[in-house]
């Protein structure tokens, strides 16, 4: 059988598969949902509310993968045929074919990266890579049909303070929250992450902020992953490139050009296992100073007010504006750090952050702002390390946040009532 | 500047652009300047050392060649050796010997405070001193004519692909390539590109991925695991050092091919051998042949009976160990391999395997039993090699850890038969990376003939390599291990 015949057969099979999906998909989804639905809802802790939609989505993802791969192969075969007619083809055929193959692989990944099925394959339970976790949840967002939705953004501190599942249990149908944090995020990273997200049903963005977001000058893990071509004009306008080294910019560029590069950590972890890829982090954690007091003394000088902190604040303001443009309400919890660390920080940093957030609220009246002091003042015992709360504390804080969010919604609904009381009238906690 | 860096990519692009536009003399001049820039990138001050060594050996050879007086010839040769060994002695061994002497005196009850030097080891000093020395020895032996052109000799010593981590190419092999106009052949360029790609896979995918595992495993004086799992760390180092060093050699050969040069093959399939003698015929071939030709054979080789053969083997390997670094662990590693070689020689003589045999039909052994026996022997000898790597790795432990104690703790853990539990999850990644490492060795002969592969294999190999480098590669990896030697 010649290659044209094969092409016809595979194309035909794909067409039949799509037709079958259109005609019988619902029945198959329903059948699977009836059998596996309860287990899926239980395993996903409510994140997949409609198993039928989920199964249909994954079938569609699978078909989309195959179709896209087949289209790329057909284009590759066509290009190869055209190249064969060139006089220089014979000498460099392997170079050309390799370039075509590598480009095809990246194009396929570009499409596959938008499907939940791809990220489901990258799921490794509790050791799932942060990027895979992020994309997995992001690709499920459009399938969520809850009427009122919010997304939770920020750094790992956000995740440590607010338990998404508990929040959803507490608020139920009133507000469904999807946690989309990325570790190490700062003000500018929030802006990049938001720009990366497609508009959806979510109407609120909840952020947990602390001094880390503005005054801690460390490298950004999110920048090379979320900085895209669309961000260049903004980057030049805000001067963001001044605050990052050439490597993340170069990596972001490579990542945009080659999805295989952008997803490399996730894919490497899938292939080699997390015990190898996360070993450096594990070793780093193991060698951390065991005394939190000493660790706080070491890290405290990294918190400072300078041009970089000003930039992060400007970037966060841009983030708020971007949310407004998208019709999203920003809910900010102005949180705290472990008091062990806070004691070593310049207290004026916190005052400055709080004052600046109040100013921001005045400029953007839709912005809802609450302070840690309104909810739950946390003590040293509430922290597992210098920034991350313990599970018990997370539980308490999530309960309080749920109550606060409910009150806030009630006030908003009863219209134009003043926003919840802020810390202005409360004594400082440190 | 390392081969797996962006800086080197820019450097190489400029060098190749100029190289293809220049005539022979221009190429040599440009390559020499480029090589000095490449070396000076680490520390330009060490260029003086390289230049001094180069000029001294150049003139020594010029003095040796016409000289008929044996004593004077020997004197010039000794001068060359004293200077080269002197550099090595000062920069590499002085502190080790001073510390050792101090410890010995302390044992004898004498407390002396000997001076130590606070110097940085110049990158690749062991490689270029051995390379340069081999030239004067060859001229002394009358095996090579001394070159009259200093430019060619300087290029031979400093040629950037081999300068910092070998292969230690003989003057008789490389010098003629510097002297005569070179032809850049298409098949060699294609093979060169493949060697570079393969070398990068070995370095950034295999070696640099495993480096954190090894560093973590050797961060304390005892292994993190007991029993079978303790072996995982040693396997990781075995694959890391193979990937790192053979990867460097592949890239060096590939780069040379792009410019019409040929360097000697430095690695064959060292982990697919069944005895120590074959191991050293396949591992760091340029060093082992150097030691054979300039040390083992002059010592008498195997010409004066078994006893002296054992002594020569032990001495050669001891110095081979010392070449790698000034430390008890490197000496122990050399002795370990000396013992293995001597033991193997004894076994051969005892079983009569060293006697000439009737010619065997060509091809690999047929039948499942000889194959199985071969596989078992490879498996066993790989583990024997791994014990050697444990000793070797202990040589680069941080000063706070006792090298010999670490080796002892590891050996106890590895052979603690009572605690051979279920494998650690690390085994998955190691299996993948080790599998790739073995694949390269298994298909070693084919790897050097990429140009003649069928087109679809070429395409598949290039796409796989590019993909592996892109998603498995470590781009902030450490320098090549052998730079420190």
In short:
By secondary structure, chain A is of the alpha/beta class. In chain A, 62% of the residues lie in helices and 6% in strands. Chain A has a 5-stranded parallel β-sheet.
Please describe the topology of this protein.
The complex is a heterodimer of chains A (430) and B (485).
Chain A: H1 3-43, H2 51-84, H3 89-112, H4 116-121, H5 130-140, E1 149-153, H6 156-161, H7 164-171, E2 176-179, H8 187-196, E3 202-209, H9 212-215, H10 223-226, H11 232-238, H12 246-257, H13 259-262, H14 264-272, H15 274-277, H16 279-286, H17 292-299, H18 307-325, E4 329-334, H19 339-342, H20 347-363, E5 368-371, H21 372-375, H22 391-413
Parallel strand pairs in A: 1-2, 1-3, 3-4, 4-5
Helix pairs in contact in A: 1-2, 2-3, 7-22, 8-18
Chain B: H1 6-19, H2 24-40, H3 47-64, H4 70-107, H5 125-141, H6 150-158, H7 160-163, H8 171-179, H9 186-217, H10 228-258, H11 276-282, H12 285-296, H13 305-324, H14 328-351, H15 368-394, H16 403-414, H17 426-442, H18 444-447, H19 455-472
What does this structure look like?
The complex is a heterodimer of chains A (430) and B (485). With 430 residues, chain A is α/β, with parallel strands linked by helices. Chain A folds into 2 domains: 3-112, no CATH class; 126-425, Rossmann fold. Helices cover 62% and strands 6% of the residues of chain A. In chain A, helix 1 runs antiparallel to helix 2, helix 7 crosses helix 22 and helix 8 (187-196) runs parallel beside helix 18. The longest helix of chain A has 41 residues, at 3-43. Chain A is globular, with a radius of gyration of 25 Å. Mean pLDDT of chain A is 87; it is low at 417-430. With 485 residues, chain B is an all-alpha fold. Chain B has 2 domains: 6-182, no CATH class; 187-267 and 366-484, no CATH class. Helices cover 68% and strands 0% of the residues of chain B. The relative contact order of chain B is 0.11. The model of chain B has no long low-confidence stretch (mean pLDDT 87). Classes of the chains: A alpha/beta (430), B mainly alpha (485). At the A-B interface, helix 3, helix 14, helix 15 and helix 16 of A face helix 9, helix 17 and helix 19 of B.
């Amino acid at each position: 059988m010649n290659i044209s015949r094969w092409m016809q057969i595979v194309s035909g099979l794909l067409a039949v598969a799509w037709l079958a999906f259109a005609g019988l998909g619902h029945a198959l989804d329903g059948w699977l949902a009836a059998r596996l639905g309860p287990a899926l809802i239980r395993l996903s802790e409510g994140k997949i509310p409609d198993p039928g939609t989920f199964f249909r989505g994954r079938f569609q993802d699978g078909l989309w993968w195959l179709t896209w791969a087949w289209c790329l192969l057909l284009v590759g075969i066509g290009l190869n045929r055209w190249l064969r007619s060139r006089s220089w083809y014979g000498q460099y055929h392997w170079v050309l074919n390799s370039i075509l193959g590598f480009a095809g692989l990246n194009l396929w990944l570009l499409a596959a990266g938008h499907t939940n099925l791809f990220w489901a394959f990258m799921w490794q339970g509790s050791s799932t890579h942060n990027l895979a976790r992020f994309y997995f949840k992001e690709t499920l967002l459009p399938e969520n049909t809850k009427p009122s939705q919010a997304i939770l953004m920020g750094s790992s501190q956000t995740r440590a303070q607010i338990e998404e599942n508990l929040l959803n249990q507490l608020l139920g149908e009133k507000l469904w929250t999807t946690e989309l944090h990325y570790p190490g995020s700062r003000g500018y990273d929030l802006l990049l992450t938001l720009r990366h997200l497609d508009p959806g049903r979510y109407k609120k963005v909840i952020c947990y902020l602390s001094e880390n977001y503005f005054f801690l000058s460390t490298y950004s893990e999110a920048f090379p992953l979320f900085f895209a071509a669309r961000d260049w004009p903004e980057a030049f306008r805000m001067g963001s490139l001044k605050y990052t080294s050439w490597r993340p910019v170069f990596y972001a560029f490579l990542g945009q050009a080659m999805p295989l590069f952008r997803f490399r950590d996730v894919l490497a972890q899938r292939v080699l296992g997390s015990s190898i890829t996360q070993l450096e982090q594990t070793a780093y954690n193991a060698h951390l100073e065991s005394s939190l007091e000493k660790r706080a003394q070491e890290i405290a000088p990294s918190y400072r007010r300078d041009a970089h902190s000003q930039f992060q604040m400007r970037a966060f303001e841009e983030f708020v504006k971007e949310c407004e443009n998208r019709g999203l309400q920003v809910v900010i919890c102005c949180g705290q750090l472990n008091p062990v660390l806070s004691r070593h920080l310049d207290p004026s940093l916190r005052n400055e952050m709080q004052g600046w957030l109040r100013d921001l609220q005045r400029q953007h009246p839709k912005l809802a702002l609450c302070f840690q002091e309104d909810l739950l003042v946390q003590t040293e015992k509430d922290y597992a390390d210098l920034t991350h709360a313990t599970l018990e504390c997370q539980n308490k804080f999530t309960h309080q946040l749920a109550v606060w969010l409910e009150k806030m919604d009630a006030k908003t609904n009863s219209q134009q009532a003043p926003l919840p009381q802020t810390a202005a009238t409360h004594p400082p906690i440190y | 500047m390392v081969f797996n860096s962006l800086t080197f990519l820019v450097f190489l692009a400029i060098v190749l652009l100029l190289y293809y536009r220049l005539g022979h003399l221009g190429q040599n001049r440009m390559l020499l300047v480029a090589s000095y820039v490449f070396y000076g990138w680490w520390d330009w001050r060490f260029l003086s050392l390289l230049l001094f060594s180069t000029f001294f050996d150049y003139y020594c050879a010029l003095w040796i060649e016409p000289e008929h007086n044996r004593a004077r010839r020997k004197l010039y040769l000794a001068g060359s050796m004293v200077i080269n060994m002197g550099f090595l002695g000062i920069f590499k061994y002085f502190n080790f010997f001073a510390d050792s002497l101090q410890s010995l005196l302390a044992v004898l009850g004498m407390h002396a405070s000997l001076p130590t030097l606070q110097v940085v080891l110049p990158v690749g000093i062991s490689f270029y001193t051995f390379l340069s020395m081999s030239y004067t020895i060859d001229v002394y032996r009358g095996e090579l004519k001394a070159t009259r052109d200093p430019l060619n000799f300087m290029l031979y010593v400093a040629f950037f692909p081999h300068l910092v981590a070998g292969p230690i190419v003989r003057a008789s092999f490389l010098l003629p390539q510097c002297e005569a106009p070179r032809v850049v052949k298409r098949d060699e360029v294609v093979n060169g590109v493949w060697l570079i790609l393969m070398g990068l896979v070995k370095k950034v995918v295999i070696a640099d991925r495993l480096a954190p595992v090894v560093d973590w495993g050797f961060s304390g004086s005892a292994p993190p695991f007991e029993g079978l799992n303790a072996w995982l760390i040693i396997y990781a180092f075995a694959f890391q050092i193979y990937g790192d060093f053979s990867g460097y050699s592949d890239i060096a050969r590939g780069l040379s091919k792009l410019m019409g040069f040929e360097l000697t093959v430095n690695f064959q399939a060292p982990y697919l051998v069944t005895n120590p003698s074959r191991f050293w015929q396949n591992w760091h071939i340029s060093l082992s042949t150097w030691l054979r030709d300039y040390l083992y054979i002059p010592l008498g080789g195997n010409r004066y009976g078994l006893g002296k053969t054992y002594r020569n083997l032990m001495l050669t390997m001891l110095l081979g160990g010392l070449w790698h670094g000034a430390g008890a662990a490197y000496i122990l590693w050399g002795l370990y391999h000396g013992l293995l070689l001597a033991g193997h020689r004894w076994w051969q003589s005892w079983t009569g395997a060293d006697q000439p045999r009737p010619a065997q039909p060509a091809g690999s052994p047929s039948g499942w039993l000889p194959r199985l026996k071969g596989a078992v022997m490879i498996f066993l000898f790989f583990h024997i090699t791994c014990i050697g790597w444990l000793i070797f790795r202990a040589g680069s432990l941080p000063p706070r850890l006792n090298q010999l104690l670490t080796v002892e703790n590891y050996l106890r853990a590895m052979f603690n038969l009572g605690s051979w539990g279920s494998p650690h999850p690390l085994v998955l990644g190691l299996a993948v990376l080790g599998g790739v490492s073995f694949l390269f060795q298994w298909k070693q002969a084919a790897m050097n003939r990429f140009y003649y592969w069928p087109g679809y294999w070429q395409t598949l190999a290039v796409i796989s390599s590019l993909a592996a480098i892109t998603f498995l590669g470590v781009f902030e990896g450490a320098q090549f291990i052998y730079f420190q030697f």
